[in-house]
Every structure is written in C-alpha cells, then in structure tokens.
Amino acid sequence: MEFNKLIPELSVSDFDRSIRFYVDVIGFRIEYQRKDPNFALLSLQGSQIMIQEMGKKWLTGELEYPFGRGVNFQIEVDDIDPVLESLKKHDYPIMAEPQENWYRKGNMLLGNMEFLVKDPNGYLLRFARFMGEKPVPD
C-alpha cells in the first residue's frame, strides 16, 4: 500500500463505534490497526484517514462534540449512492441531502454531486462524485 502525502488523523472518543461507522456503514477498509492506544489506518477508493482513540499526546486543546469544527473532509467516490443507501439502512442521519454543486476554477466550472454527514464524533464528511467540467456561462 502506498501512503498519501497528507493523511488526516482524527481523535475519536469511542474507537469501536468509529470503526463500525467507517468500515461497516461507509465502506472504508482497515489497512492496519494497533492497540494501546487504539489506532487504525483506513482507506476508501484512494482516500486515506487515520483514527485514534483520544489520548493526551496529540491534543492541542479540550475536545467537545462536535469535533473538527471549521473543517470538512471531502471524500471523492465513484458513486455516492451505495454510501447513502448504507447510511439509510443503518438509520444514520444525513446532514445535507445530495446536491449538485459547481465550483469555479478559472473559466471552467467543476461539478460534484455531494452530500454531508457527521461521523460519530461530529467530524463533517462530504462525499462527492465528480461530474466533470463545463465552461463558465457568458
């Protein structure tokens, strides 16, 4: 396995609950994990994240729900529907329903079909399927 150059590591309050969410509900794969403290490197279609049960070593301040305020993690997937279906099957709340969004890059628009969900610790995940690009209308 090749490591991405940037891999966010998320501190979690309940490691087992977070593993179940990311693996059983979302579909991430455990690349490796260890104990003491509980840690796992997870991957999904080229995206990688690490989760670790909270400890004092990496904390920069007190954590309270929702964690990760002010940041969202865009996770590009081939198809958002399987993730959505699994979230609904597990009765997991979706924060923002799927929506087509176009973002300007110079004289082009880049399109995503995307939705938002919070993980068990409140980290905001934005699942997106790239829809292509088109010129900015005159």
Task: Give a short account of the largest sheet.
Answer: 4 strands, mixed
CATH class: Alpha Beta
Q: Give Rg in angstroms.
A: 16 Å
What order do the strands of the largest sheet run in, or round the barrel if closed? Answer: 1-4-3-2
Structural class: alpha/beta
> What form results from the Cα inertia axes?
globular
CATH superfamily grouping? 2,3-Dihydroxybiphenyl 1,2-Dioxygenase, domain 1
Helix content: 10-25%
Count of individual helical segments: 2
Q: How many individual domains?
A: 1
Order of helices and strands: EHEEEEHEEE
Oligomer, anyone? single chain
Number of strands: 8
The fraction of residues assigned to DSSP E strands is 35-45%
The CATH topology is 2,3-Dihydroxybiphenyl 1,2-Dioxygenase, domain 1
Query: Ends: how far apart?
Result: 45 Å
Unreliable stretches (pLDDT < 50, length at least 5) are none
Mean pLDDT: 94
Please name the defining characteristics of this protein:
2,3-Dihydroxybiphenyl 1,2-Dioxygenase, domain 1, globular, single chain, 4-stranded mixed beta sheet, 138 residues, 2 helices, alpha/beta
Description:
The protein has about 140 residues and is an alpha/beta fold. It has one domain (about 10-55, about 70-135): 2,3-Dihydroxybiphenyl 1,2-Dioxygenase, domain 1 (Roll), CATH 3.10.180. Helices cover about 15% and strands about 45% of the residues. The strands form 2 sheets. Strands 1-4-3-2 form a 4-stranded mixed beta sheet, with helices on one face. Strands 5-8-7-6 form a 4-stranded mixed beta sheet, with no helix packed on it.
